[in-house]
Amino acid sequence: MKASQFFVSTLKEAPADAEVVSHKLMMRAGMIKRLGAGIYNYMPMGLRVIRKVEAIIREEMNRAGAVELLMPVVQPAELWQETGRFDKMGPELLRVKDRHGRDFIIQPTSEEVMTDIARQELRSYKQLPKNFYHIQTKFRDERRPRFGIMRGREFTMKDAYSFDRDVATATLSYQNMYAAYQRIFGRFGLEFRAVAADTGAIGGELSHEFQVIADTGEDAIVYCPTSDYAANIELAEGLALLAARGAATQDLTLSPTPGKSTCEDVAALLGLPLTQTVKSLVLASDELDQDGAIVKTTIWLLLLRGDHDLNEVKAGKIEGLKNGFRFATAAEIEEHFGSKPGYLGPIKLLKPVKVVADRTVALMSDFVCGANQADHHFTGANWGRDLPEPDLVADIRNVVAGDPSPDGKGVLAIQRGIEVGHVFLLGTKYSKDMNATFLDENGKPQHMVMGCYGIGVTRILGAAIEQNHDERGIIWPEAIAPFSVVVCPIGMDRSEEVKAAAQQLHDDLQALGVDVLLDDRGERPGAMFADWELVGVPHRVVISDRGLKEGQVEYQGRRDAQATKLGLAEVLDLLKTKLA
Amino acid sequence: MKASQFFVSTLKEAPADAEVVSHKLMMRAGMIKRLGAGIYNYMPMGLRVIRKVEAIIREEMNRAGAVELLMPVVQPAELWQETGRFDKMGPELLRVKDRHGRDFIIQPTSEEVMTDIARQELRSYKQLPKNFYHIQTKFRDERRPRFGIMRGREFTMKDAYSFDRDVATATLSYQNMYAAYQRIFGRFGLEFRAVAADTGAIGGELSHEFQVIADTGEDAIVYCPTSDYAANIELAEGLALLAARGAATQDLTLSPTPGKSTCEDVAALLGLPLTQTVKSLVLASDELDQDGAIVKTTIWLLLLRGDHDLNEVKAGKIEGLKNGFRFATAAEIEEHFGSKPGYLGPIKLLKPVKVVADRTVALMSDFVCGANQADHHFTGANWGRDLPEPDLVADIRNVVAGDPSPDGKGVLAIQRGIEVGHVFLLGTKYSKDMNATFLDENGKPQHMVMGCYGIGVTRILGAAIEQNHDERGIIWPEAIAPFSVVVCPIGMDRSEEVKAAAQQLHDDLQALGVDVLLDDRGERPGAMFADWELVGVPHRVVISDRGLKEGQVEYQGRRDAQATKLGLAEVLDLLKTKLA
């Protein structure tokens, strides 16, 4: 294709509201154009990438035996009322009334419509398993859309839904999709990791996130470099870092720690390692009556080693906190601890609280903790002697790099990632809510076991750029680059030779099926090169009069530090090899 | 592909709400599935057709130099307020508020967003002409959605927008799109006609509709079989059917016509040809003050030959009726004519009215018309002698088959058509409303001249079926069939030979790039054949044990009355030829 027949529109500066690099670069490269908060036009350059991403997804979904269909963007509310999500989902769900005042929603996902199709179409065990997918426009009215198309409101998603007769076959369907996702993200040419994920509110059986590795990712992902272990930090199991509790060697001592309210400050003041300190966090859980009024509040003291952080997802799995919790108020803390925050601890409480110790804390001895007295901490605290054993010992912390891997095969490392895919064994939640049954061999109705599998099509673009860019611009992986090769003639208007050679190389590459662009815009070399480095085309060939006189052109890969001179025939061979 | 890996779901009976054949057959063939009024799931079989339609459109749009992008489904109201369409469009425009209470619309089309992109991106005459298109989900909240996806609420449309520096180049862009549409509809394999269309409220320069010919079409299209003339009946010019006015030969006579209030009845009673009668239609136009109160009403008498019908679009172009008109009330008629409808005429009026005679009526002599007296008509009426010449002579009728063609090259014929495409030279309406300008050679801002070009992607399916079906089902044109060939093995489970031959033929065809389906569902032959005739696959090969023993298989084209026996190698050659 010639640039003059396409649409190239680059910007020197990114708009002020672009915070992250992918957003900045996509705006500057003319890939997207803002229409409203979290709503973007996909410009020709960006749409080419989307189409390549979609094509790879489609190929691999089809290869995996999934069948494509297309569900509407505007969906009747009735189905969403059947599952209760019409009311339960917050303002993220865009609701709309038609001319007759009937309720509709703009789809954020399609479990309801898909389950409705399945309950009508899949009537016998003979029709199972079945996996349907679509690639469609979605809308989620994010409270604070940001990061360009990484957290936009309108976006394109591939969502697939599998239907099985039982959990055993559903697990096979899940594994099939997991394998397809491995192929898909592999083909994109992105560094990614499939990590075990929390199954959250739906409480399904199995869940993995596909995370594109990027320093700027919102998610922390935990993995073991010497084994297969990988999980979202929300889920990654924290083992006790001590083999057994040591014997008490110190007396419990009240130490003044004026103004030192953090473990770090206390450890520094006392000249002790941070790992000797214990952090106290106070939560509250409320029991409600049927009108939503609080009938009873329980106060919880969660104890973590000073260098560890609370994992709220894990805390939320504790019996008594499952239905929700909050941080305790200053008044509740004063009432139970007789102290202000910063000096709290498990010893000498005014009123009983539920004490939950992290696995490591439960094995600590001679530890430091708040004394429930302003500007004071205890040192030499020991379980059993100075305070009763905790009510509960649980894994309530985020793992940290260097922790032992839960599979016993090494130590954990942590990376940042951007979630671009999610596979989820849903079980029977939706099929029960919507009574989606099939008849088994005995003619008895059974609820279908479902899985759902999403890929954020447009988000992939952002994630790919967060992972692959430099100070000059985007560096697209080969498979999803808007163009594979750009041919840049210098002085095409002055030299027939340059024009002919550029056109010939373009035609030869196109004949080979290569996605090649001939930049015939007549830009100066500097501006032309800057454009294509910004856009991130993987391969560039520069053809100049001077070069041609020596029988040479210049080739430069997007990651190469400098150009290589070689003959026209050679550059074709080189590109054939590189693009093979 | 194997049927077992796909999803085939046919119905014996169409649902009761399916009125037209395409709706019935699409439902029965499992192409679409109703989700709500005018909202459909595109099932796997239907989606395959949609994808083929889209691919052809995309290829030809690209070939024509248009550049694809993608605009959002949910669009901010601000742009629609700039053009006034946010308020002016009725409830067809689906309006929605986001979580912050801001107004958005679900796009029915994208002139506003496109013009907004153009005014930001196209700044210089050097960037023009430019043509952008997208293929995207649209929504129009039709008052009465019907005919399946022919008049649904959510649908897929390709809409393109061209931007030019002046009307001359815009006309070239228009012609370029017109030619692309000719190629597109030609490639679909549909019988179609491009017809000149009324430019309506926008009042643009040029407009053509692309109509798929079908007896069930909603539109009447007029064409001349011996010339290029073709127009929508709304626009087709009706010439005077008399060369000149004949001399009066009869006296004006009041004839009793008791109970005969139609021209047909009066002509029959009097033993005169219908073409000797004149029909009177009474319209009213109201002048409003700025508060919308009526300040003056004009009564109009429109005269048509008895066998002709009023063309309201043409009437709406008459000076004085341009701003709208209505049929007169009974009271208004009584006041001006002193008679009830059915016996009205242009002679002996109580109060003055504006008399508009159709071109033919103005040349009639000795005609029959109502006498403004119940149960009476005049015969022998003559212009000038019995009544004054009309205030206006105009083309206000629908043409009828057999009329002379306006280009003088033959007589007109009329077909029914389904509008599936529309090209429109918009002029500067949107660019002026939204101040979309470019700088010309002199650095002066000029409004861009726009064209817009739509194709109803999903509607094509309905139109194709209305045109191509029989009592057994759909007959897809080759280019957009969900599958080109279906291989039907009989007794595949009993015979290894049948299984192997079917698989081999499938693999051979697939290797040739043919879209082939192997029906491995194990259905009985009758049910299997009925399914594929219903679905409308163009080519079927039946492989049976008995046939193979004779070295033969059976080939049948979807339009063939019966099957042909031939060898396996021969059938491959035959299909190669047919699919070439």
UniProtKB/TrEMBL annotation, chains A, B:
<dbReference type="InterPro" id="IPR002314">
    <property type="entry name" value="aa-tRNA-synt_IIb"/>
</dbReference>
<dbReference type="InterPro" id="IPR033730">
    <property type="entry name" value="ProRS_core_prok"/>
</dbReference>
<feature type="domain" description="Aminoacyl-transfer RNA synthetases class-II family profile">
    <location>
        <begin position="33"/>
        <end position="477"/>
    </location>
</feature>
<comment type="similarity">
    <text>Belongs to the class-II aminoacyl-tRNA synthetase family. ProS type 1 subfamily.</text>
</comment>
<dbReference type="InterPro" id="IPR045864">
    <property type="entry name" value="aa-tRNA-synth_II/BPL/LPL"/>
</dbReference>
<keyword id="KW-0030">Aminoacyl-tRNA synthetase</keyword>
<dbReference type="InterPro" id="IPR007214">
    <property type="entry name" value="YbaK/aa-tRNA-synth-assoc-dom"/>
</dbReference>
<comment type="subunit">
    <text>Homodimer.</text>
</comment>
<keyword id="KW-0436">Ligase</keyword>
<dbReference type="Pfam" id="PF03129">
    <property type="entry name" value="HGTP_anticodon"/>
</dbReference>
<dbReference type="Pfam" id="PF00587">
    <property type="entry name" value="tRNA-synt_2b"/>
</dbReference>
<dbReference type="GO" id="GO:0004827">
    <property type="term" value="F:proline-tRNA ligase activity"/>
</dbReference>
<keyword id="KW-0648">Protein biosynthesis</keyword>
<keyword id="KW-0547">Nucleotide-binding</keyword>
<dbReference type="Pfam" id="PF04073">
    <property type="entry name" value="tRNA_edit"/>
</dbReference>
<dbReference type="InterPro" id="IPR004500">
    <property type="entry name" value="Pro-tRNA-synth_IIa_bac-type"/>
</dbReference>
<dbReference type="GO" id="GO:0002161">
    <property type="term" value="F:aminoacyl-tRNA deacylase activity"/>
</dbReference>
<dbReference type="InterPro" id="IPR036754">
    <property type="entry name" value="YbaK/aa-tRNA-synt-asso_dom_sf"/>
</dbReference>
<dbReference type="InterPro" id="IPR006195">
    <property type="entry name" value="aa-tRNA-synth_II"/>
</dbReference>
<keyword id="KW-0067">ATP-binding</keyword>
<dbReference type="InterPro" id="IPR050062">
    <property type="entry name" value="Pro-tRNA_synthetase"/>
</dbReference>
<dbReference type="GO" id="GO:0005829">
    <property type="term" value="C:cytosol"/>
</dbReference>
<dbReference type="GO" id="GO:0006433">
    <property type="term" value="P:prolyl-tRNA aminoacylation"/>
</dbReference>
<dbReference type="InterPro" id="IPR044140">
    <property type="entry name" value="ProRS_anticodon_short"/>
</dbReference>
<keyword id="KW-0963">Cytoplasm</keyword>
<dbReference type="InterPro" id="IPR002316">
    <property type="entry name" value="Pro-tRNA-ligase_IIa"/>
</dbReference>
<dbReference type="InterPro" id="IPR004154">
    <property type="entry name" value="Anticodon-bd"/>
</dbReference>
<protein>
    <recommendedName>
        <fullName>Proline--tRNA ligase</fullName>
        <ecNumber>6.1.1.15</ecNumber>
    </recommendedName>
</protein>
<dbReference type="GO" id="GO:0005524">
    <property type="term" value="F:ATP binding"/>
</dbReference>
<comment type="function">
    <text>Catalyzes the attachment of proline to tRNA(Pro) in a two-step reaction: proline is first activated by ATP to form Pro-AMP and then transferred to the acceptor end of tRNA(Pro). As ProRS can inadvertently accommodate and process non-cognate amino acids such as alanine and cysteine, to avoid such errors it has two additional distinct editing activities against alanine. One activity is designated as 'pretransfer' editing and involves the tRNA(Pro)-independent hydrolysis of activated Ala-AMP.</text>
</comment>
<dbReference type="InterPro" id="IPR023717">
    <property type="entry name" value="Pro-tRNA-Synthase_IIa_type1"/>
</dbReference>
<dbReference type="InterPro" id="IPR036621">
    <property type="entry name" value="Anticodon-bd_dom_sf"/>
</dbReference>
